Structures are given as C-alpha cells and as structure tokens.
Amino acid sequence: MNRHLTYITFGTILLLGHFLLVANLYVYASDAPSIAFSSNRDGDYDIYMMDINGKNLQQLTDHPAHDSAPTFSPDGQWMAYNSSQDGNDDIYVMNLNTKVSHRLTNHPRDDLNPAWSPDGRWIAFVSERAGMLDIYKIQPSGANLQQLTHGDEKNNTPVWSPDGQFIAYRAFKDPAGIYIMDADGGNQSRLKNQPEPGWTPAWSPDGKRIAFTVVLGGNYDIYTLNVDGRDLRRITRNIASDYSPAWSPDGHTMVFWSLWARNYDIYRIDVNGAVDNRRRLTRHPAMDITPTWVPTGTLSVAPTAETQTTLWSRLKQSIGD
Predict the structure, then answer these.
(1) What is the pLDDT of residue 152?
(2) Non-local CB neighbours of 235 within 8 Å, separated by 6+ positions
(3) 215 and 201 within one domain
(4) What stretches in the chain show pLDDT beneath 70?
C-alpha cells in the first residue's frame, strides 16, 4: 500500500512538473511583452530584444552591416527591419523561429523605417527611389508596391493606426510636423495644435492619441495629443533629449530612447503617472535606439525567475483551492 502511494505521489510530482514547464512557457508567451531595439554595442548596429525590465538580453541580428528600426508582424512570427548588408539600406524580413532573413526590397536607393500594418497585409516604409524620401507600402511577399506620398519635401517615419485605416508620418513640407493620411495615401492633413512641428509619431493602441517628439527650448521631449488635436499632454520633461516613443500594447506605458544620463539608452515611462517617472532599461556605453514592443505570444525571451515564481504561486494556489 505504501509503495503504491509512493508511486502515485512520484507520478503526480512528475506530471505537475511537466505542467509547470508547459504552463510557464505559455503564460510567459501570452502575458509578458518584450522590447526590441537597435544598438551598436558590437561595433555596428544590430537588433536586440529584452524583457520589460531590461533583463534577458537576446541578440536577433548579427551582421557587420547596420541593422535597425525593427517592426513585427501582428502574430509575432516575423520581424521587418532595414539593413545595409548589401551596400545600401533595404528592408529585410526575419522568421523569428529560424532567425533566417530574406531581402524584401531591392533598390539602389535607400529603403528605411518599415512599419507592419495591424492586419499583417502590408509593410509601410520610406524610400528615396523617386529622388526624395517618400512613403510606400508593400505586401510582405514583395508584391504590390505602392507609393503613398509624392511630395517635393521629405516624408518619413510612417506608423499605422490600430485599425489599419490611417498612417501618421512626419512631413517636412510647410507647415512641417505630424500628418495623417488614409492607408492609400489620400486625405493628407496635419495633426492640429502641435506645440511645434512634431517628429517620430506613435499611435496609441486605442487609436485615440498620437505620441511624438517635439523640440522646445532646444530640448527634445515627448508629448501626446488626441487625433482631433485636443488635450495636449507632456510626458517627459528633461534638459537632455528624448526620442521615438512607442506605446505598450495595453497603452499604459511607453518606451523611448534618451540622452538623459549622457548616453543613449532605452527608457520606460508610465503614460498616466507623474511627468517624467522614467525607468532606465539599458546601461551600456554604446548607443541603444529605436525601441519598439514585440507582440505578446512570441517566445522570444527566456522565462525569468520572477515569471517562474509567479506561475508556481498561481499553481500552488489553484491546488490549495
């Protein structure tokens, strides 16, 4: 009887351990977003990934050329980025499961700053192929290239609205600043009530607000504004410079890069908290820039001890109940 009970107990422990491992991976993949960014810490710019606390750093690209500006497919299985590995900047796409990349665009002029659409059907990007920086979109297969802007001045840094119907971007025409257009390039209009011409727009997950960088008094700070031009809010207040905000999937926080500590690092900030409640995520003498959020559901960063402890507590509570 005792031996039979011992076997049952041992089997239960093995089964629980297996369940813990599977559930740990599942919970981490589902609940814990990651942050991707570019860094020249190895002498050239490569793309890295870390958890939301700046831990568990993982290198995604490793090439002597410059790789930067990552953006992810909605399902988290693919990453688009620009790379100069063939002599000039083109857009590449990486399968995150195999870490194998293929070249999406192939033009002697630079293609930069990709942005994946929320439905996964398009990648917007910037190109000099018509002689001026303009915004284009292309399908991830490389088909159906379309030019969206046709300006005499530069247009840069496209970002999709959450519903995929609009694109915000930075236009250098007069008046310069953040503009919004339809996804086919129509109905281009300037975002109202920008305190100064904005840079690097980022659309909030609920579609109601746009974050951007503004130069006031010689400093670069981050502001947010309703899409209709109401309710201007200042997010950072710093004598240094803050750039390129990116909203978290839940809309509560942002990541950005900053010269705050006399070095370019990645920071995280609570959008609804006190002004400048920033937290520094990277501490490296190199330049860490262009952060973005990786869609949840991607097993991209190894589970942390904190994640494992949290899950084990959940399991023990369930067993106790």
Answers:
(1) 87
(2) 211, 221, 222, 223, 224, 245, 254, 269, 271, 275, 276
(3) yes
(4) 1-32, 297-321
